[in-house]
Design a protein that fits this description.
Layout (H helix, E strand, L loop, with lengths): L2 H12 L5 H12 L3 H16 L13 H6 L24 H6 L9 H121 L4 E7 L7 E7 L4 E7 L8 E8 L3 E7 L6 E6 L10 E8 L10 E6 L1
Antiparallel strand pairs: 1-2, 1-8, 2-3, 3-6, 4-5, 4-7, 7-8
């Protein structure tokens, strides 16, 4: 017999429905160690042991007990039947009864039909279990696919959020850089404003000085005009020396107020740290004051007190260090007689 035929004979063996040759062949196969057939036999024996409980109980006949009680007893002296011959080595022994508990044989046709029906039910139950397993597996597979799709969707969303976050970080960095640049520009503008304010203060100071100079010059001009108009005023003309041939000056003296006014023109520009100094000369030179030049190379000086004008014989202008000296040391640029 082939292995497939032996597998088909296992259910019949479990219910004791095999013929002797087939039973011996299956038992020899089980002795060879086939685990699949052993497992199948145990399952079918379990099912077969439950089959009697599915039958409808039938009440025994009422005269069964009387028949048993009136059955003839064994006759004494009757020779007992000869013992059965020794069983073939292929027949099941005690070891088979130990592995597979014996089940009372049933050779009736209804019992075989019941066994076939049980086999069909067993196969149908197995098929249903297989179909149920397949359905659950398919459902779980669909759920798993949906879960994987959801995970992929969430991963795409996370990637999109990360990309958006990176873009915003780049935007923030660009805005920060631009803010730093604007802060630098504001600081530079603040410095420029401070410089402009300083320049404006300087210009205001210069304007105030010019206003003061203009006011002083206006007063001097008024005094100069008054001296010119005064018929008692004395005039001394100074001419240029070899150092400044085109230069000249006028010295007005008011005897009443003892004031004098000097107006010089075409004098050379002064070196740095130098001034022009006027000298009134009698026996020795006496300083009458120092003056500078304006942008037009003109010099003006008001002498508030010039005593002993009548004694003075000569007036001269020299170049001296800034602030003047007690005695002349520089070259003479202007000179005049009284």
């Amino acid at each position: 017999m082939t292995h497939e035929e032996l597998e088909e004979a296992v259910p019949l063996y479990a219910i004791g429905a095999l013929e002797r040759p087939e039973r011996q062949a299956l038992e020899a196969h089980l002795l060879s160690g086939c685990t699949a057939c052993h497992a199948s036999l145990k399952e079918y024996q379990t099912v077969a042991s439950l089959l009697p409980f599915g039958l409808t109980p039938v009440a025994p006949p009422e005269n069964l007990k009387a028949k048993i009680l009136h059955a003839p007893s064994p006759i004494p002296g009757v020779v007992e039947a000869e013992p059965a011959p020794a069983r073939s080595s292929l027949e099941p022994g005690e070891w088979m009864n130990h592995l597979f508990p014996p089940i009372a044989p049933a050779h009736s046709w209804p019992f075989r039909v019941a066994m076939g029906f049980a086999t069909v039910l067993l196969l149908a139950g197995g098929s249903y279990l297989g179909w149920l397993y397949y359905t659950q597996t398919t459902q779980r597979s669909g759920e798993l696919q949906q879960l994987q799709a959801s995970v992929q969707q969430e991963a795409s969303r996370v990637a999109s959020l990360q990309s958006d976050l990176q873009r915003r970080e780049h935007t923030v960095a660009a805005l920060k850089s631009e803010l730093d640049q604007r802060a630098g520009e504001v600081a530079e503008l603040r410095d420029q404003l401070i410089r402009r304010e300083a320049e404006l203060d300087d210009m205001r100071s210069q304007l105030a000085q010019r206003d003061s100079s203009m006011a002083r010059l206006a007063r001097q001009n008024e005094e100069f005009a008054g001296m010119i108009k005064n018929p008692s005023s004395r005039v001394v003309s100074l001419t240029g020396s070899e150092a400044a041939k085109s230069a000249g000056a006028l010295l007005l003296f008011d005897p009443a107020s003892k004031k004098a006014w000097l107006y010089a023109f075409n004098l050379p520009a002064l070196p740095s740290g130098k001034v022009y100094q006027l000298w009134a000369i009698d026996d020795k030179p006496v300083s009458a004051g120092v003056f500078g030049l304006d942008a037009g190379q003109k010099g003006r000086m008001l002498i508030k007190q010039l005593p002993d004008f009548a004694r003075m014989k000569k007036f001269a202008v020299t170049v001296e260090p800034d602030g003047g000296l007690p005695q002349p040391t520089g070259a003479i640029y202007l000179v005049g007689q009284t």
